[in-house]
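Reproducibility note. Readers wishing to regenerate the assembly model reported in the main text can use the exact inputs given here. Chain order matters: entities are listed in the order in which they were concatenated for prediction.
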Amino acid sequence: MNHNEKLKAVLLAIAKDDGQKAGALGLLDALSAAAGILATGPTGLIVKGFLSLAKTVSSALKNPTEIDKIDLNTLFVESVDAKLKKNGIDDDKINSILNA
Amino acid sequence: MKNIKLIAWMFIVPALLFMVTACASTNKAKQSAMISQQMYESASNTVVEQITEIVKAADAGTITSEQKRTLADLSEFKKVLNKYAEAHNAYVTALKIAETSSSKTNDVGKQARDLAALSSQIIDYCNKLGIKVL
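Running the prediction on these inputs yields the following structure tokens for the assembly.
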């Protein structure tokens, strides 16, 4: 079983059973350690992404009092299709390019 | 491909954080929703930028075969992202109900588990493309 498959197995187990949360915590630690290793390597965007991610997560978790002030209405997201539509792109356009 | 690798990473870690914290308390569930939103925005914006760039190249008649292959991958990936957006919004809606309702609800936990299952699909997609997520 490769690493992606192990991740998938854990994710599916969690999806089925809340009791697997402890296992997820262990996996999260492993991922954090792996992130540390990657961050020291010449992996460009991945390093940049993780630094950004770490900052975001750290900021969110260290300021619980700020969380109360967040309006849930601001947490909704827009689909990728909706974002593309603003650029004048839809599935028909993409498919016409792919089928050309 | 590096951007797609980055997107894969950005989904896996917050998805796990999401699942670990989602059922703990409303505050932590809200934190998780905030992180999920930020990661989704970052990933989806990257996909939108790349697709837009390739479509412009196609319109200009300068699209390469590699760009065409990337567009096909991005087109498939965007379907997963669209589902994620839908699941995320359902989770936030469940949180809103939980916050305003005096009666307890299991919807927050259910939506969190739905997102966990969706994260699994993202890993499937990464496998399909040969993207190593760790």
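We highlight two features of this model. Residues 13 and 32 of chain B are 11 Å apart (CA to CA). Chain B has one domain: 2-128.
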